[in-house]
Specification:
11 helices; two-stranded antiparallel sheet; mainly alpha
Amino acid sequence: PLSGRAFGSTAAVRSGNASSYVEEMKAAWMADPTSVHSSWNEYFMELKTKGEDGSSLAKGDETDPETVQAIASDHIKMLLLVRSYQVRGHYMCKLDPLGINDANLHVDKFNYRGSAEQAESVPKFLDYRTYGFAEGDLDREFHLNAGVGAGKGGIIGSNQKKTLREIIAIIKEAYCGTVGVEFTHIADMEQQNWIRNKFEKPKKFEYDAAATMRLLDRLIYAV
């Protein structure tokens, strides 16, 4: 979609060609508001309410292009962080309840992790700082409204507002708990999104009484 290209590259804004950039976004929004990123949708809706047409951004307001670039940067960083957990989170799963193995055999912590401080906490590829976020961003709120394929899958397409701290807690629970899941090799995007929706939510393994009894019955039958 157009929104993916626009937020994958901010060269038009950085080079000062903001006018054509904004006009392109506005044309896409007028044809289909869902075809652009939610931040653009909110921006044009606000202008429509005020009776404006977006020309202030197109005509070179120095703050607006910088704001657009910051939004694009946050959007890309968040996609990379969540994607890293989806692809590599299972490396850090707790699959050794007896503590027989002292380390995850798939991960050499000093090859994958940066400083000694990071080595004792989370691997570098799952550290939010690796993707450009800072400690001061942990309590910032982000609007999660990106999706891929048939429908929007998982937390990144949930259309919710959450802090970075909350987002990390959810994806860490989803992919670094006691159940490992590898699914990014699946070609069918709808199937991938089904898995994301099942795992990327708080308390994903809490069931009602009927479901719990059904699971118990199947376990007894299996034994």
